[in-house]
UniProtKB/TrEMBL annotation:
Database matches in Pfam families: GAF (PF01590)
Organism per entry: Streptomyces lydicamycinicus
Domain GAF: 116-214
Entry protein name: GAF domain-containing protein
InterPro entries in UniProt: GAF, GAF-like_dom_sf
Length: 438
């Protein structure tokens, strides 16, 4: 079976592949259709890039200036793994043909190393530290697509969504926290057509595994961790073993983690299904299937978790509680189980988003406000855009773009009359009530 994450099969002609994929790319930009020889992983990425309105030409945006970059990356967990990256990929990064890059979960490049000539060439497309290379901002590319798919991947030449990047090829692998299983970022090898070889993908995968093993050293206890922010299927990590839960099981574990004292069947049913009538056997069947997956973690009478579970929801709330808004924003990977319609999850999701937004509005930090406004959940948040306008100096050139966006959103919300942009907004993300406690 052909490995779908490899850019080319053995013996393929890179020149012919570039030609055919470039034609397919032009067709996709023209009418949205995509067909072989475009790989499924690339087709999916092109669609995500188009849905996010990523530019098909132009440079990736630079989000972290020098001062912010150094402060952020010095405290980043992946700083501990840089000796491993340099040991395993350093010779490639200095050979005059490759670059070694490491990014955070948002796709912001924290380290870009290699021969000065290659780095200068890459600078023309803003492949530089501080630039954001997730799919939303840079289109299909190996580090961005590895983050989106949470899988090692190669992107070859014309498979890149942005035409400015199509002379390059790259291979990248995601990196996870060995204790919690949460995404830390990605390691990437960028160069010419030769990066599309199977050897390159195997190399970055092996480097990622070695880095994760290095990060494991000094971790006294792995415990139980749950990641449910920004993902419909939660990731449960028990003593280092990763388990991806189904959507209903994700809701159940999330709710039980918030109720360590336990819930009766009726209480859990209300949080999952609301007031509509639901036969008790339905919930019992879901819990039985979950017990087969999670083993002794799930107890009954009342339903509860047998061990303390650390959640990414807790991490955001703890940072907000001590006023660490930057740490909270870094930990906030998106809405809690965003597609869930379970009433208990919806209330938790709304309450956390409200707390996060309130902290950002109170902090009035332009960098934090801008970062939230660049997310799918913040791009149409009028109150955030108005706060950003108000936080910037009146004569600052950086004020014009958010000012235009705020005016556009006011018009879209029908708020065209009265009130200057920068005043408290009349339209905002809905306020949610706290979930019931039993």
């Amino acid at each position: 079976m052909v490995n779908p994450w490899l850019a080319m099969e053995a013996g393929a002609d890179p020149v012919e592949r570039t030609r055919t994929v470039r034609r397919a790319h032009a067709a996709f930009l023209a009418d949205g259709t995509v067909a072989p020889p475009v790989r499924q992983v690339v087709a999916d990425s092109w669609r995500r890039s188009a849905d996010a309105h990523a530019a098909a030409d132009g440079a990736a945006p630079i989000e972290l200036d020098e001062a912010a970059l150094h402060a952020y990356r010095d405290g980043h967990p992946l700083a501990r793994a840089m000796p491993v990256f340099r040991e395993l990929l350093g010779s490639f990064a200095q050979d005059g043909a490759h670059l070694l890059a490491v990014c955070d979960p948002q796709g912001r490049l924290l380290w870009v190393e290699g021969h000065p000539g290659v780095r200068r060439s890459a600078e023309r497309m803003n492949f530089v530290v501080g630039a954001r290379w997730d799919e939303r901002h840079a289109g299909t590319n190996a580090p961005g697509t590895a983050l989106a798919a949470e899988h090692a991947v190669q992107i070859f030449a014309a498979e890149h969504y942005n035409r400015q990047v199509q002379r390059w090829s790259c291979a990248a692998a995601p990196l996870h926290d060995p204790r919690t299983g949460r995404l830390l970022g990605a390691v990437d090898l960028t160069g010419g057509d030769h990066v599309a070889s199977p050897h390159s993908l195997a190399l970055v995968q092996a480097t990622a595994r070695a880095a994760e093993a290095h990060l494991t050293s000094g971790v006294p206890e792995l415990g139980v961790c749950l990641s449910a922010l920004g993902r419909d299927e939660a990731l449960l990590v028990m003593d280092g073993k990763r388990l991806r839960l189904g959507r209903r099981h994700s809701e159940i574990i999330t709710l039980l983690a918030r109720h360590p004292e336990g819930l009766t069947g009726d209480q859990l049913s209300v949080l999952l299904y609301g007031e509509r009538e639901r036969r008790p056997v339905t919930l019992r069947a879901e819990l039985s299937r979950l017990r087969q997956l999670a083993g002794t973690l799930l107890h009954s009478r009342p339903y509860r978790l047998s061990r303390s579970v650390e959640t990414d929801l807790d991490a955001v709330e703890e940072a907000l509680a001590v006023g660490e808004v930057r740490s909270a924003l870094n930990a906030y990977r998106g809405p809690l189980l965003p597609s869930s319609e379970a009433p208990g999850v919806q209330r938790l999701r709304g309450a956390l988003a409200d707390r996060m937004r309130s902290a950002l509005l109170s902090a009035r930090d332009p960098g934090l406000l801008r970062e939230w406004s660049r997310t799918p959940w913040g791009e149409d948040d009028l109150e955030i855009w108005e706060a950003l306008v108000d936080a910037l100096p009146e004569r600052s050139p950086a004020r014009s773009a958010p000012l235009a966006t705020a005016h556009r959103l006011r018009a879209a919300y029908g708020l065209t009359g009265g009130g200057a942009v920068g005043a408290p907004a009349a339209a905002r993300v809905a306020t949610f009530t706290q979930p019931p406690r039993f």
